[in-house]
Amino acid sequence: MNEKTVSWQSGSTAFHLGAKMESLKALAKGHHQVMIVDETVLRLHGHRLPRIPVIPVVSNETEKSLETARKIYNQLTDMKADRNTLIWCVGGGITTDIGGFSASTYMRGLPFILVPTTLLGQVDAAIGGKCGVNFKGFKNLVGTFSHPTDVVVDYEFLKTLPEEEFRNGLAEMVKHACIADKTLFERLESLYELPKQLKSRQKEALSLIEQSIPIKINIVVQDEREGGRRKLLNFGHTFGHAIEATTGIPHGHAVSIGMVMAAQLSVELDMLEDTETDRLIRLLSRYNLPVKLPVLPELLQKALWHDKKKNNDLIDMVVLTEIGKAELTPISIQKLKEFLYDLRQYQ
Ligand SMILES: NC(=O)c1ccc[n+]([C@@H]2O[C@H](COP(=O)([O-])OP(=O)(O)OC[C@H]3O[C@@H](n4cnc5c(N)ncnc54)[C@H](O)[C@@H]3O)[C@@H](O)[C@H]2O)c1
User: What residue ranges line ligand 1, CB within 6 angstroms?
Assistant: First the structure.
């Protein structure tokens, strides 16, 4: 097991990488404990989880709501949770987001431990202190910045993860590689059959997760409140969210296409060689992630202009200067319109 403690502006988080759930029960010593857990994970992995009172949650974006948080507060009250109660949040990003949000708001904040059980949760959602719920159709509109005391990354959970969910996580790993780590990109290029290898827990494949996790940690440490550098983690996501909203395709697929579009935009701005875009397309295709827009580019406009990162008629876009290096650049809506129009040539 690899242990690493990270200090934030307030508090710190101990990351337990390659940990075994069973051996970490001591983390909660001296606390009254409650577990908020994804009901699928409870069904598949219940035997490995601590024997403590459980609040099951259904993992879908509609349930990631204030209404679910209210139900959790109700149950915490019934369970007589108090300031000495420690909350375990066990599941994918939906559960760790809503669990972290409920824990960090109940009684002005209870200590909580995140146990991400999806690849996306392990490399992304459980890192960085953003906890939140959706509101009025807007994703993560209501939330807090609150760090867990511990993040437990136990690879055993990945054994039961469906193929589709692996792909969502892989898209985020490719994103990390693109913005900050060329060697991770090269390793991803050289490992064939990665999802299978991750599932069978091959050491080399798992070490890619351990290479990916510090990328987000290092960026967040420099900019916890997303004033600047943390925005680099949005690479592919401005287009990705617009694609998701317009077509309803899964998040990882939308981000994959969004990253290709962001790379093409970087080429258009003379910031990136087009051979780098080709490499990105090859890598994503190898993992069966889509690289082409399933709709006409101009159909994305409405969702794009509604992007919350919009600033007057400028949109902050993350562009690449090479694989492993990214920059934040404000782009005018006019320029983006032209780009979307030109993009037809790639379709
Ligand atoms: N807080 C952040 O910084 C941050 C960052 C990225 C994403 N997110 C959020 O994360 C959410 C997406 O997370 P996700 O992709 O993990 O989705 P998820 O939590 O919905 O999990 C995906 C599916 O996998 C199932 N599942 C979870 N673990 C499993 C396991 N071990 N075996 C079998 N099935 C399992 C779940 O029941 C669900 O059906 C979004 O709501 C997104 O907004 C948050």
Answer: 38, 40-41, 44, 59, 61, 64, 91-95, 97, 117-118, 120-121, 124-125, 128, 130, 139-140, 157, 160-161, 165, 168
